[in-house]
Structure formats: structure tokens, C-alpha cells
Amino acid sequence: MNVKPKLEMTRRLFVFAAPIGLAGCATTGGVPNLSAAFSGTYGDLEDNGVIIPGIDVSQIDGRFLRQDVEYSGRQPAGTIVIDTPNRNVYLVRSNRRATRYGCGVGRAGWEFKGGGFIGRTAVWPHWAPTSNMIAAMPERYGPVRGGMAGGINNPLGARALYLYRDGHETNYRIHGTNEPHTIGTAVSSGCIRMFNHDVIDLHKRVAPGARVVVIQSGSVMSA
């Protein structure tokens, strides 16, 4: 079910440090002079009545910015490949190319391996904390035990893509985030989180039924 809240938020820029100490990364260090190349991709964005603040990409490691890359793996076009160790999401395209996005990996993100498919999607999805989250941090999650409507402060961000396996929904999802500084890191909760700008782009390119392959080790090019 699509949720289209009418919220407003003061425009601002997120500036955050490049992630460090990530195991299995293909390159080291940031990529200089990226702000000009990506300013159109990560600027202020209005989406269904919600203002998503622009992101200052000059301080972000280039591995986690959306870009076109070569793909020599065996998955067909339209497949989403999640490279958990390297914190990247790939959307395979034709002609041995892919769109690569950065992601953050939550606790649930490490628990799934192999294949599945997108069973449903949501625009500005509703979110509710689990009973375990409420028990662990009642002062934080108790007040929202009934859930939160979609919006800029919702932990699931602008979109959610729900993974199914064997015809049943799993607890695994790809979603946006209201904490963009966590992209490229391992986080304590959630599944696979992306910049809101990127999860909107991914959502536009796929539909329910799209195949998903989750890699917990090895090379994305062998998937």
C-alpha cells in the first residue's frame, strides 16, 4: 500500500565522513571532485509531498555513490545483486553493465543468503518496531510501538522492497534511511538500507517479481 504523506522539512545538507575500516572493499580512499559529477543525482528532492534534503557528496567515498559499472557475472538483466561484505547493491542491466549503489547492512541483512524475489514494494512505507527492539530499548521504541506513518523521520525511508522466498515474505527488505551517514557501514538493526535518492531510483527500475541474489562472501562478478 502506498503512503503519500504531506510533510515539509527545512532543506539542509547532510555532510558526513567517509567510512573507514570496511572489510573486503575493492578500493581505498575517497574519489576526489565528485560533487560536480553527482550534484544532479543527490540534490534536494521533492517526492510525494516530502522534501528529501540534498546530500553533499564531496565527503562520501565514491564506492557508495550511484554509478554505472561493468558486470561480468551470470545473472540476467533485471536482477538485484546485494554484495553484503562490500556494502553495495547492483542492478544488472544489459550489455554487461550494472548500476551500483551504496548500502548499509543491518543485523537482519547478515542473516539471508542466496536467492529470492521482490514480492511487493511500498512508497514511504509504514514502520513498527519489533517486540525485541521494544524490550531492548523501551524508552526509545515504546512510544512508537503502534508504528509510524511514512515520512522523512521514518526509519524505512522513501521506499521499501520486500523480499520473498518460496512464495512467502521473509524479514528481509531493501529500504531507504533517514540516517544517510550510515551508508557504507554495518549497523545494529534493519536490513539493507540505501540513500533515499538511490532507493527511489531502484524502485523506479524494478517491479514485483524481480530476482534478488544476496552474497555474503565471494565476488559479485561470480554471481
Question: How would you sum up the major sheet?
Answer: 10 strands, mixed
- Could you give me the name of the CATH homologous superfamily? L,D-transpeptidase catalytic domain-like
Number of strands: 12
Q: Predict the CATH topology.
A: L,D-transpeptidase catalytic domain-like
Mean pLDDT: 82
The strand line-up of the biggest sheet is 3-6-5-4-12-8-9-10-11-7
Structural class: alpha+beta
Number of domains: 1
Description:
The chain has 223 residues and is of the alpha+beta class. The chain has one domain: L,D-transpeptidase catalytic domain-like (Beta Barrel), CATH 2.40.440.10. Helix content is 11%, strand content 26%. The chain has helices at residues 35-38, 131-136, 138-141, 196-205, and strands spanning 45-47, 50-52, 67-70, 80-83, 88-92, 97-102, 104-105, 114-123, 159-165, 168-175, 192-193, 211-215. It has a 10-stranded mixed beta sheet, covered by helices on one side. A two-stranded antiparallel sheet has the order 1-2. Strand 1 (45-47) and strand 2 form a beta hairpin. The longest helix is centred in the last third of the chain and has 10 residues, at 196-205. It is globular. The chain starts with 34 loop residues before the first helix and ends in an 8-residue tail after the last strand. The relative contact order is 0.22. Mean pLDDT is 82; it is low at 1-39.
